[in-house]
Amino acid sequence: MALRARALYDFRSENPGEISLREHEVLSLCSEQDIEGWLEGVNSRGDRGLFPASYVQVIRAPEPGPPADGGPGVPARYANVPPGGFEPLPAAPPAAFQPLLQPQASPGSFQPSGTSFSYGGGALQPSPQQLYGGYQASQGSDDDWDDEWDDSSTVADEPGALGSGAYPDLDGSSSAGGGMAGRYRLSTRSDLSLGSRGASAPPQQHQGSGAKSSATVSRNLNRFSTFVKSGGEAFVLGEASGFVKDGDKLCVVLGPYGPEWQENPYPFQCTIDDPTKQTKFKGMKSYISYKLVPTHTQVPVHRRYKHFDWLYARLAEKFPVISVPHLPEKQATGRFEEDFISKRRKGLIWWMNHMASHPVLAQCDVFQHFLTCPSSTDEKAWKQGKRKAEKDEMVGANFFLTLSTPPAAALDLQEVESKIDGFKSFTKKMDDSALQLNHTANEFARKQVTGFKKEYQKVGQSFRGLSQAFELDQQAFSVGLNQAIAFTGDAYDAIGELFAEQPRQDLDPVMDLLALYQGHLANFPDIIHVQKGALTKVKESRRHVEEGKMEVQKADGIQDRCNTISFATLAEIHHFHQIRVRDFKSQMQHFLQQQIIFFQKVTQKLEEALHKYDSV
To answer: Which positions ≥6 away from 214 have C-beta within 8 Å?
Structure first.
């Protein structure tokens, strides 16, 4: 007898070699032996492929035995029911097919925000850092990590730190138990499209022919996709729950051109100066320290490159829908050379400018801690802030709870999708043109430094050779001409030097700006992927509603959460265009001004040479 199985839940294939299943569908199995949680079989439509073993129940032939008529008065249709009742459902699908979900906490449960695990609803639930893998800071040879930077203490060990039942109030104080001023518990679990089942359980079968089937929005099988790792999927499916402080709210407002981030009420800038070489461990370890002076505090702090690297890691982990600018690249050798230090400082200035210009990044706690805490004089305060940032719970799916969108504002998803697609095409074109311009500018700068300088000096040398030949004439009236020609040769030598020095003034700043924006352009595919993933879930929920498999209220909840992600994505796109116009306007003005100054210097040299012939 051929092996058969019955589908317990809907499954939609997403990769080649997989087949889709419909609930209650009967399949033919090629083998009962699963391969790493997958079975191979043929569905009712004749498609052959793989599907999750935990999504089906193998149909086994009843054991031979006496007729089970059930005795007098028992209907014959129940004769095949085993004495013990129906066979129980198989275990829940493996973790590869469903994310770790946090169970809904009971009204009386307490969930301290500083601990790694909390108990609520009868199950241990992992912290957001365990649910969603964060960015790991690079640890290259540029700035090694040492015991001073990475000790074994945690923020929970420090006085006044988060955890242990204490919550910081907005004024910086902490209170235990009910004194959580300015903190609100937000949850998306009330309208879960998964129904009221446990967090890690698969969809329940409805027994009884009159019960209405309840479909679920499928999860991505690729658990390493940005949509999953960022927490976007868990948020859209209604699995986010956490405390949000007033100060953590990120507001999106409607501006004249659409959604945009609410402006920073206290804008500031930050200078980066005085890169100096420092040593530690009695000269065994050397590093470069930069002096940062924020305009809103006027208090200088000193930071190493590894501090910038750590900050970038925290920001990239926390803000999945914000383009955190990339830092200047590391360099294994020559990092104490003057040219490299100067170039890195210029890159850090651009980076800091973009950080301080962003309405969200500029105000976040970890960035302010980076700018204001004097690590050299108050090491304990620095480490406390560092550990607090690393224990931040508003990451992953919980980050999206901090987004506050315009009230009573609805987005046309078709219009949003069109805008996102248009921006995706724009970034691709901009990236290609930026690469082309960077290549052209780099090649032109190389020619100026080597080729042009060499050619102009060859011309100058030729003029001086002519002057030396004329000096053999020994005529008094030819002395002035000989000197003028020699001066012309010197002028061309000077012009060659001007060409060699000019790229530092005009082309290098352009290439620095292009490098920064290439980092932004590399960020946006992941940001767009999060929004596209949310939109896919909305379309799937609408299809279930049309088929009568999902309640409208649950589908509306998914769409509302998709709108939240869409608002944030559109706001970030708007900010990108704003700073792009500002930066390229300023840089092109600087480039042309430097070109004018350069050619004025060249003209001045030529005019000086010309005037030498007036007295001949």
So the answer is: 195, 203, 206, 549, 550, 551
